[in-house]
Design goal:
Blueprint: H1 9-15, H2 41-76, H3 81-94, H4 98-117, H5 122-154, H6 161-198
Helix pairs in contact: 2-4, 2-6, 3-5, 3-6, 4-5, 5-6
């Protein structure tokens, strides 16, 4: 008489897959995080270029506000009211030029591009995100605070002693406070971008791609 042995399906499944973990045991196989070298050369170059561009633009903007803070406002504090109003009106009438616009307005899209290109790098993504938030704050302070003050001062045409004294009193201290704040926020953005640019990538992956185990 011939006898047969029935093998449970679970046993067949385990024996047909060498190296599979036993029931009740946790699979300790880990996926190794990719390094920067695993990105295509063209993509790595694009990422690097985006970091450099964003850092340069943020740095130029921060330097602009910092220069005002440590020199321009201090020098103007020493002049008389009429000279103060005349000088600031002259500055405000010439500052809206192409080079300034490319730096001041171009920094935000440059930061956004750098952030998008580093979606697969959580360390750089965090640093770029912080820089973007700080620079947007800088932009908002300028647009909502400094520019309206500049425009109001630009309307002053009366050069009588009382008129220019009042115009300066309404403008100088509020503008200086706002410039100090945006100097700090823009410098903070520059520090964050420096960390992103100079820091070592740990998990750089081309956005939209996955690693196979």
């Amino acid at each position: 008489m011939t006898s047969s042995i029935t093998v449970p399906p679970a046993t067949l499944s385990r024996t047909s897959q060498p190296g599979a973990p036993e029931p009740g045991m946790r699979d300790t196989t880990a996926v190794v995080a990719p390094t920067a070298e695993e990105s295509p050369p063209w993509f790595a170059a694009l990422q690097r270029s985006s970091l450099i561009l964003a850092t340069v633009l943020v740095g130029l903007a921060a330097g602009f506000f910092f220069t005002y803070q440590i020199s321009v406002t201090r020098a103007l504090a020493e002049v008389d009211d009429t000279t103060y109003v005349d000088t600031f009106q002259a500055i405000n009438s010439t500052i809206r030029n192409t080079p300034f616009g490319l730096v001041f307005f171009g920094a935000i899209p440059a930061l956004c591009a750098a952030l998008a290109l580093h979606r697969g790098d959580r360390h750089r993504r965090l640093a770029i995100g912080i820089a973007l938030v700080l620079y947007v704050a800088t932009f908002a302070i300028t647009a909502a605070g400094s520019v309206p003050l500049n425009d109001t001062l630009g309307l002053v045409t009366d050069r009588s002693t009382d008129a220019v004294a009042q115009a300066r009193a309404d403008f100088e201290q509020p503008w200086n406070r706002l410039n100090l704040i945006r100097t700090l926020t823009s410098l903070g953005a520059l520090v964050a971008m420096s960390v992103a640019t100079l820091g070592r990538s740990r998990d750089n992956v081309v956005p939209g791609t996955t690693l196979s185990q």
